[in-house]
């Protein structure tokens, strides 16, 4: 079960600075831990997060083992036109999740 | 002589009361001990990682399981309406077993009896998700656990356990959470031990967890043997703590450091 929580304002005025918040469920296993019997717990993390607006990339982050479980991102952008934000998380073990949110700009 | 007798009687009374319980007006949720950034994390539904479990819970609520082929929603409808104010009375008295059961156990008894499905393991993502979904519907409502008079003997047992010194450190819950709640232990606030936010997301756990998990961690911390998940003693302790927190608002899913 992978689930994402997205917070994008539904409406904004042209030129407004808006905050975008995303939360993705993921264990972010570092790869540095061992089981009781000494075996390494394989790394299982999200490695990349991207946000596109109407097809153009506006935010990207690379993630590393030090990032806590269930990574939370908050970033800002300027509202220029109505459209769709698309979010993408990519990680180890073929992890790939997407989400989207629309905004109407007046 | 009569005067000395009066002192002795006063001492006896004081002795009988034992560890001083926290007056109602001074009761503080663990929330009030947190730093502003952790508070913000709990207050904002899109920053509170506990909401990820609530989201999963909504999916599970509508999924048909077990040989009865029923989903929770088939009997209970929309959880947002039907589960409103349910969690504030848990642990509650269960007629079938004649004992108190907590919210997790109530969900599992529903699964076994009505969905004819296997019970979910304690601390499994599914059980935590369903519990979080149910508890979320009571967010902000005042805790009412213990109003049922049938619970009285079990609350008394839970209180006894709370006051009982145990483990290699020979500490009772009360030694920290009633007597020293305004102090710090290894840099962390001790707090009053009111379980107002469960199931809650602990940053230390990197996950949502139940009150039973928290209690087991505390019991291990005083170097006593922790009770197994679902043990009657743990449920009685949960029951006492929730009844002790009566009147405080439920915060589930909470966030704690």
TrEMBL record, chain A:
UniProt domain Sulphur oxidation protein SoxZ: residue ranges: 9-101
Instruction: Extract the InterPro entries matched here.
Output: Ig-like_fold (IPR013783), Ig_E-set (IPR014756), SoxZ (IPR030995), SoxZ_dom (IPR014880)
Q: Which Pfam families match?
A: SoxZ
Q: Which Gene3D superfamilies match?
A: Immunoglobulins
Top-level lineage group:
Bacteria
Q: Which NCBIfam families match?
A: SoxZ_true
- Name of the protein in its database record: Thiosulfate oxidation carrier complex protein SoxZ
Name its species: Bradyrhizobium australiense
From TrEMBL, chain B:
Q: Which residues of the sequence carry a binding annotation for heme c 2?
A: 173, 176-177, 218
User: Which InterPro entries does this UniProt record tie to the protein?
Assistant: Cyt_c-like_dom, Cyt_c-like_dom_sf, SoxA
Q: Which reaction does it catalyse?
A: S-sulfanyl-L-cysteinyl-[SoxY protein] + thiosulfate + 2 Fe(III)-[cytochrome c] = S-(2-sulfodisulfanyl)-L-cysteinyl-[SoxY protein] + 2 Fe(II)-[cytochrome c] + 2 H(+); L-cysteinyl-[SoxY protein] + thiosulfate + 2 Fe(III)-[cytochrome c] = S-sulfosulfanyl-L-cysteinyl-[SoxY protein] + 2 Fe(II)-[cytochrome c] + 2 H(+)
Q: Where does substrate bind?
A: 214
State the taxonomy lineage: Bacteria, Pseudomonadati, Pseudomonadota, Alphaproteobacteria, Hyphomicrobiales
PROSITE patterns found in the cross-reference section: CYTC
Q: Name one GO cellular component term.
A: periplasmic space
Name the predominant localization: periplasm
Q: Which UniProt keywords apply?
A: Electron transport, Heme, Iron, Metal-binding, Periplasm, Signal, Transferase, Transport
MF term (GO), any? transferase activity
The Swiss-Prot or TrEMBL record describes its family as follows: Belongs to the SoxA family.
According to the record's subunit comment, the protein's assembly and interactions are: Heterodimer of SoxA and SoxX.
Per the record, the GO terms for biological process are: sulfur oxidation
Q: Where does heme c 1 bind?
A: 72, 75-76, 110
Give the EC number(s) listed in the UniProt record: 2.8.5.2
Which cofactors, by name?
Answer: heme
Q: Write down the species.
A: Bradyrhizobium australiense
The molecule here is called SoxAX cytochrome complex subunit A
Keyword Protein transport listed: no
Which N-terminal residues, if any, form the signal peptide?
A: 1-19
Q: Which subcellular locations apply to this protein?
A: Periplasm
Keyword field contains Cytoplasm: no
Q: Which residues form the Cytochrome c domain?
A: 52-245
Q: SUPFAM superfamilies, from UniProt?
A: Cytochrome c
Binding note for cofactor: Binds 2 heme groups per subunit.
* Annotated catalytic residues: 218 (cysteine persulfide intermediate)
């Amino acid at each position: 079960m992978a689930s994402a929580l997205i917070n994008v304002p539904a409406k904004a005025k042209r030129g407004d600075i808006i905050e975008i918040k995303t939360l993705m469920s993921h264990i972010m296993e570092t790869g540095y831990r061992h089981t009781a019997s000494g075996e390494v717990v394989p790394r299982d993390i999200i490695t990349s997060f991207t946000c596109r607006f109407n097809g153009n990339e506006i935010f990207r982050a690379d993630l590393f083992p030090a990032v806590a479980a269930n990574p939370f991102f908050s970033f800002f952008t300027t509202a220029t036109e109505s459209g769709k934000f698309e979010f993408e998380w990519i990680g180890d073990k073929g992890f790939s999740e997407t989400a989207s949110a629309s905004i109407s700009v007046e | 002589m009569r005067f000395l007798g009066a002192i002795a009687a006063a001492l006896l009374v004081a002795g009988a009361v034992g560890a001083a319980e926290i007056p109602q007006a001074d009761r503080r949720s663990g929330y009030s001990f947190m730093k502003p950034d952790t508070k913000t994390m709990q207050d904002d539904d899109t920053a509170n990682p506990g909401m990820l479990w609530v989201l999963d819970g909504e999916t599970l609520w509508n999924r048909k399981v077990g040989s009865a082929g029923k989903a929770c929603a088939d009997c209970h409808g929309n959880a947002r309406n039907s589960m409103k104010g349910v969690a504030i009375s848990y642990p509650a008295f269960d007629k079938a077993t004649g004992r108190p059961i907590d919210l997790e156990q109530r969900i599992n008894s529903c699964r076994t009896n009505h969905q004819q499905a296997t019970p979910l393991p304690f601390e499994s993502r599914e059980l935590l998700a369903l519990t979080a979904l149910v508890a979320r519907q009571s967010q902000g409502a005042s805790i009412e656990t213990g109003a049922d008079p049938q619970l009285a003997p079990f609350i008394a047992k839970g209180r006894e356990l709370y006051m009982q010194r145990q483990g290699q450190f020979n500490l009772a819950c009360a030694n920290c959470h009633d007597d020293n709640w305004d102090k710090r232990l290894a840099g962390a606030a001790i707090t009053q031990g009111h379980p107002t936010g469960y199931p809650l997301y602990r940053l230390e756990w990197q996950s949502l967890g139940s009150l039973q998990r928290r209690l087991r961690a505390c019991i291990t911390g005083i170097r006593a043997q922790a009770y197994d998940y679902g043990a009657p003693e743990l449920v009685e302790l949960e029951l006492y703590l929730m009844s002790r927190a009566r009147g405080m608002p439920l915060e589930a899913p909470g966030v704690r450091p």
